[in-house]
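Morning. Coffee machine broken again, so started the prediction first thing and wrote up yesterday's gels while waiting. Chain of 189 residues, entered below exactly as on the submission form.
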Amino acid sequence: MLRPTEELVREHRLILSLLERLEALVDQALAAPRSPPAASLHEVLALLCLLDDLHHGKEEDWLLPALERAALPRGRVSLEVTLDEHMEARALLAELLFALGGLDLGQEVAAQDLANAAARYARLMRRHMINENEVLFPLAETTLPGEAKRALLDGFAALERELLGGAGGMDALVARIDAALENGAPAAA
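Came back before lunch.
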């Protein structure tokens, strides 16, 4: 069984893979701004939105409150910064979806809007995940007692059932991501 922070780091790797695919698809859209966007661009953005709900939900609903209850040592990390970055990421995902809608309508300028939002989103997420992997998650490992870590795993599983349950759970999500990364074609929902 994975530790809670190992589970979150594994999700970071999935997000990083999708960011690389997003950047490649955005480059294609910039090269042919009058062409309809690839279906895989829709799929990658849908997966990033789903992972935002799932991954950031685990952190916001379970990890960060557990750290607050455990009296996180002051000065080591700011939970507010983590939450602010989650909000910024959601705003950038909304910008990406809006720009993608413009591409769907044939708006040539939307390709540049998409590229700008994608660059900002990728930069934010990479920096954010490094901070979590190197500061927040190790702190959680040393701060949280064993029963709190077990409660996190239970909470994570409940959120996965809520968001992914009917679709085969995390294994199905990973397969969907793998399909989007391998061939660029949309995977079955």
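The first helix runs from residue 4 to 31. Going to sketch it on the whiteboard this afternoon.
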